[in-house]
Amino acid sequence: MSACCSTYGKVAGAHFDEKIARRDLESYRKKGVGPTARLLRDLLVDTGAVDGVLLDVGSGVGGLSFDLLERGVTRAIAVDASAAYLAAAAQEATRRDRLRAVEFTHGDFLDVGSMIPPATIVTMDRVICCYPAFEALLKEALGHAERYFAYSYPRDRWYVRSAIAGENAVRKFKRNPFRTFVHPVARMTQTIEGAGFRLAARRRSWQWSAELWVR
Length: 215
Known about the structure:
46% helix
């Protein structure tokens, strides 16, 4: 798949369609946020890094944003390349009476980032693994983070690589151009440290790593 950000936006927007958005919203309402979003949420809460404005890049149906709004964040900016996800998030915001607290922005973050103000906290839950141009995405996100940056990514383990390779093979067979990636952790870490952040906390599952960085 092309690393062009506009191409990514079209591909991701088509992949995360109304069916997936509806499924994820129903899951959130029944079970709460997913395991990686829960790791990020708890990292932020347990370290006292929950205040100010949140920028949630790749916000999906908004679960992480809503959870952090309930725990101290004053306002959230939700950005996603999927119009269906943002529509579902707006529906949930209406149900929770949170429309005034959340600003929704549709588009690839590399395309729309220049129009979005900095935020106290920037989060990216299971976003870096969907993005081919991961270093450019990281730099854009870090440039918006005033104090905290929290993200999750697939661990670089053989079984994770095998699972993702299998998923990509199925997508290729179905002529779906969307792909997921296991990016080199050392390069991601180098990019984050180069932006002036230090690692504050990390939690892991067998497949995922969640990290909180502070400036």
